[in-house]
Amino acid sequence: MLSDQELARYVESFVRQAAAVPGAVAAAGGISAESVARQLGPQLGLDLTPKAPLIRDILLALFSPPPQGAPFTSSAPSPSASASASASAAAAGHFFSQQQQQQQLQTFLTASQQYQHRGGAGAAAAPPSAYGVAAAAAGYRYGQPFPQDEGAHLQRLVQMHHHQQQQQQQQQQQMAAAAAGVAAAPPTAVESPRPAAASKKESASTGVKRRGGPGGLNKVCGVSPELQAIVGEPTMARTEIVKQLWAYIRRNNLQDPNNKRKIICNDELRLVFETDSTDMFKMNKLLAKHIRPLEAKKDSNRDSKKLKPVDSEPISPAETDVNQLPIILSDALASFFGTGEKEMPSSEAVKRVWDHIKSNNLEDPANPTMILCDSKLKQLFGCESLTAVSVSELLSQHLFKQPNKL
């Protein structure tokens, strides 16, 4: 059995939730005793239709303005009354503040008990109804009759509640803006000027964005013959080298199925990394010895010109890059190139062979690591097909170092 006090608490909670959602009251057609009973009843599992008179009185007790010492009149308020009303509105943080709710419930319960006490003393034969208890509570609290059009009265009070919420939000925004203005105020002369200088540096650094040049990771580097067999180019930017290497790894399914970060090396990668397996973190370190700067010779020549004494001896050819030294070509390789050249750097020879393979689409579509030899490659290497990594190995048989000149 639901007591009147419990019903008052449920109705108050329902009204607070409905008033807190903008537009919910208007969508529901206003707050009335019938609508509250119709919507609150299924939530409690009870039929609250017989309790509609009590719910109406509870609603009026909740939404009626607190006593100001005089009953509500339609005449214009005095300046002092309006000032006190505005001060009390500013002091109240919310229309349904916790203190006001407790006062309303306490007044309702006190009035209900007094009414029951008086009813028991004066008319013991007829116990007071729930409607009479709530009516006595509201009459005891406010000392005035209920308005006839309580629906319009409740809607006006809900509109006042929403208006007060908007005013409170505006006040909070103004206070936040004022606090932000105080926090952003410039430092006084007593404070150190270092923060201001730091802010100038930050603004200067963020104002103009530097454009990346040809240096760094986009700088074109030389590729070793072992790595060139995989990426297919003698010179390439470091980012492009890593990109082509990962494409080769995925194309040949060299990632460990249980750990995608681990790379299982095939014969070609074993020549590059000199290990059976590696991971994506160690790969950059292992690639370092296969990537060579192209401008190293120019920089060294500049430094040698600056620091070279007059009577210094020339640099030994053994100290220069071996791949840049001309190498004697075999007759078969010279006829393969068809240019009549008998000497060229090994990197240039490898590049020309790969250019021939790619220009004639000799890579096997089913397995890109396999090369299908045409008539010229068959004559040079003596086989029908070969792997990409074996190109450098077979080509080395046609390259001969020059004899040392004494």
UniProtKB/TrEMBL annotation:
PROSITE patterns in the record: SWIB_MDM2 (PS51925)
Q: Which residues form a coiled coil?
A: none
**One GO term of the cellular component aspect?**
nucleus
Q: Where is the composition biased (Low complexity)?
A: 165-185
Which residues lie within the region annotated Disordered?
A: 158-219, 297-318
Q: Which domain of life is it from?
A: Eukaryota
Q: Which residues form the DM2 domain?
A: 216-293, 322-401
CDD domains, alphabetized:
SWIB-MDM2_like
What spans are recorded as compositionally biased (Basic and acidic residues)?
A: 297-311
Q: By what name is this protein known?
A: Os08g0502800 protein
Organism phylogeny: Eukaryota, Viridiplantae, Streptophyta, Embryophyta, Tracheophyta
Per the UniProt record, the source organism is: Oryza sativa subsp. japonica (Rice)
